[in-house]
Every structure is written in C-alpha cells, then in structure tokens.
Amino acid sequence: MISELAGYREVEHTADWELEVWATDMPGLLEQAARGMSLLSGMKLFPEPRLVRSLTLQAFDYETLIVKFLSELLYYAEQEGVGFDKFQLNMDGYDLQAELEGAPLASLDKEIKAVTFHRLAVHQTDGKLWMNVVFDV
Fold first, then answer.
1. DSSP code of 74?
2. Is the Cα torsion angle 113, 119, 67, 44 positive or negative in sign?
3. Domain map of the chain by residue range?
4. To which H or E segment does residue 104 belong?
5. What is the pLDDT averaged over residues 111-116?
6. For range 33-57, the mean pLDDT
7. CB count, 10 Å around CB of 124?
8. d(CA 80, CA 14)
9. Cα-flanking dihedrals φ and ψ of residue 126, to 5°?
10. d(C-alpha 59, C-alpha 130), whole Å
11. Is the peptide bond before 49 cis (omega within 30 degrees of 0)?
C-alpha cells in the first residue's frame, strides 16, 4: 500500500522478503509493518468471530521494539491461528501498549520464519519515519 503519509512496499531481495515502510509516527510505522507482513504472507482472516488481544512490550530502541512486535504477531499466527487487521498502538518512549483486533486465520499462503535485524534502522526524512525490515523465509 502506498500513500503519501503512511504505507509500505515490497523491496526485491535475493533470498528473503523485504519491506520499505513509512509513517508519520512510530505507532503508524509499526502498524504499516504489520500490514505489510500480513500481505507478504498472504494472510486471510475469517470474518467472525472477532478477537481482541492486549500486548505490552518494552525495548531499549525502536529497532528492537519493531522486531519484538512483529515477532509477537508471527507467534499469534503460528501458535494460536489468529491474525490482526485493526491496531490501537500507544507508545511511551520505547514502551508499547497495543490492543489488537482480528480473527482466526482462514489461510496463510507463505510462512515467515522470523523478523530480522538485517538492514533494520529507523530514520526520519521529510517529516516521516522510514525503515526497511527483512523477513527470513
């Protein structure tokens, strides 16, 4: 998804999958990364029942927080068979409070094994936050 304020796009990568992600703030960057990861994996949700999960994460930098957050979403998909399409994200420094709304997985076309730190760096340009995130497949 590409828009001026927030979005993501797939970046060609030799062996793994990579996304370029941008948003006006850190919660937006996390949400766009989550949406992009879901799209890459071909995640589809059943319409019902709707499920809510709360999540609290702490980190010492944004890159670690990104890996922790996306890894938690992978855990929910793999272990509980749940995916998310609505995100209420609040941050205080490097602490994240998240309320995630989703549903059971109808299908998952491709497996993402892990979120990596490879090429992961958050930077600010033109009033937006940008990052690239690489997924081990």
1. H
2. negative
3. 7-136
4. strand 95-107
5. 96
6. 98
7. 8
8. 31
9. 55, 40
10. 19
11. yes
